[in-house]
């Protein structure tokens, strides 16, 4: 078993980031949400809640779909990235 931390393992991954986001967040719907499960289920911490506003950064997404499944308000429009874009996993 490797002694690498999760952050070190994630740093080995390669991203081909598209200019077109594969996940869209309906921030107006998020304003009405008190629980905000997306903040807790995203392993890459792509969701942030600062100064009363929710934001999402798709560039570091691991494409696991946890945010889409956890949001019962359907504020997350989720799809896979276009062909040739997204994450390439490397394990070290």
Question: Mean of the pLDDT scores?
Answer: 92
**What portion of residues belong to β-strands?**
15-25%
Task: Work out the helicity level.
Answer: 10-25%
> Distance N terminus to C terminus?
10 Å
Number of strands: 6
List the total number of helices: 4
Instruction: Report the top-level CATH class of one domain.
Output: Alpha Beta
Q: State the strand order across the main sheet.
A: 1-6
Description of the molecule:
With 92 residues, the chain is of the alpha+beta class. The chain has a domain at 22-80: Alpha-Beta Plaits (2-Layer Sandwich), CATH 3.30.70. It is built from 4 helices and 6 strands. The protein has helices at 6-10, 27-30, 38-41, 66-70; strands spanning 14-16, 23-25, 47-50, 53-56, 76-78, 86-88. The strands form 3 sheets. It has a two-stranded antiparallel sheet with strand order 1-6. Strand 3 and strand 4 form a beta hairpin. The longest helix is centred in the N-terminal third of the chain and has 5 residues, at 6-10.
């Amino acid at each position: 078993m490797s002694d690498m931390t999760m952050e070190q393992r994630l740093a080995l991954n390669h991203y081909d980031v598209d200019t077109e986001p594969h996940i869209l967040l309906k921030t107006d719907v998020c304003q009405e949400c008190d629980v905000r499960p997306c903040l807790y289920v995203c392993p890459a911490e792509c969701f942030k809640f600062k100064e009363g506003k929710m934001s999402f950064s798709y560039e570091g997404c691991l494409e696991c779909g946890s945010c889409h499944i956890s949001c019962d308000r359907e504020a997350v429009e989720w799809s896979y990235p276009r062909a040739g874009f997204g994450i390439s996993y490397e394990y070290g």
